[in-house]
Task: inverse folding
């Protein structure tokens, strides 16, 4: 386990057509190094229960990420890591 001074918190965001599952291997490695890791399923992706027709805008697609980030304490620092949608 990493020294608590060096522990970071990461939020992993998948690309279009994927889900949190796409981060599985790296998330396991990061967690085994002692880091805090959260991988999210965006709207209608992975285990997110919404269907594609329930996501009329990019804002709706990102709502799981925005809700998670809003739930964090204001003094919580995280490293946001994402795939490109291109």
Result:
């Amino acid at each position: 386990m990493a020294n608590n001074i060096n522990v970071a918190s990461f939020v992993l965001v998948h690309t279009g057509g994927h889900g949190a599952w796409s981060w599985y291997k790296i998330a396991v490695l990061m967690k085994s190094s002692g880091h805090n890791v959260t991988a999210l399923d965006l709207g209608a992706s992975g285990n997110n229960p919404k269907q594609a027709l329930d996501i009329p805008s990019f804002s709706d697609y990102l709502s799981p990420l925005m809700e998670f980030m809003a739930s964090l304490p204001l003094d919580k620092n995280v490293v946001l890591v994402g795939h490109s949608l291109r």
About this structure: The chain has a mean pLDDT of 90. DSSP finds two helices and three strands in the chain. The radius of gyration is 14 Å.
